[in-house]
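Customer ticket, subject: "Can you confirm the structure for deoxyribose-phosphate aldolase?"

Message body: Hello, I'm evaluating your service for our small team and ran a test protein. I'd like someone to confirm that this is what the system normally returns, since I don't have a reference to compare against.
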Amino acid sequence: MSNPGILFDDSLLTGLDVEKSDIESVVDDCDRCTKVGFLPEIEASYLGLILHVMDLTSLNSTDNKQTIEALVDKAFLYAKELLKSDIEKMANTHSCELRNYFTTSTLTPQTVCVSSVRIYDVVQRLRFLKQHIDIASVAGGFPMGQVPLSCRITEVEYAISHGAAEIDIVIDRGLAISGNFEELYYDLRAIKSLCIKGNITLKTILSVSELDSNQTVYKAAMTAMMAGSDFIKTSTGKEAKNATLFHGMVMCQAIKHYHEKTSYKVGIKAAGGIKFNEQALSWLVLVKNILGNDWLQASLFRIGASSLLEDVVKRLSIVLKKFHQ
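Agent reply: Thanks for trying us out. I re-ran your input and got the following:
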């Protein structure tokens, strides 16, 4: 079930009850697990999952029809072509379960994520290829969020009407830092109402590295979930500093507490500066350790990235070769 949201309840904003040392301990465990390494079969399945939950992204000021067409082609062809021989050779290994895991859908990112004005280019390329992939669009004043609500609503309506299945909006960080969480709630609730009409997935970007404390990150995350966000997302990718696993731990705690209070499961999306498979694996382990295996699926876990795909495929090819040496 998607998250319909609840009435604003400021009593839920005070639930962050973990010490900084506890957060650091969990983060260290995630990093240590990644550095020590995984059994090949586990690593292969984790890397395959990362491919599958990826929002393959291009949000550049220089994007145009040609770059977006290349993005769509990359989503469908890159992993399949480079891993085809490795997966076929697994037919003679004992790892039938793992071999069956790598299907066409597994090797295709979950969405392509583009600016609202580039949705048309994605739609046209998909028609040409006779393929389908969901389109995620940043909208609503991305990346600053310092835009009148009426303008944010207009852009979200534009994105949905042109084919976006998912909307990634960004909060007004000024509201969060100044403690105006109720106003932030109603801003997000207005956009959620548009998404409900079209059965659109709403992801809310917190820009955590621009918030002033762990408490503010927690409160912003909880406010976004109360307003009906289906995912909370770390970053726009345009901040001066990227989100860390430390921020992710706080966000996971908020998701866990919201689920305990409401029974609604909200997803987490890590984005911004995630270029290497080790980084992505650390986020996966964090989500698994804090939220559990239920969250290790595309409906509850995403990674937004523009260049991660290449590194994950390269590493996955190396791991798969171990099964037929």
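A couple of notes from the result: The radius of gyration is 19 Å. DSSP finds twelve helices and eight strands in the chain. Feel free to reply with more questions.
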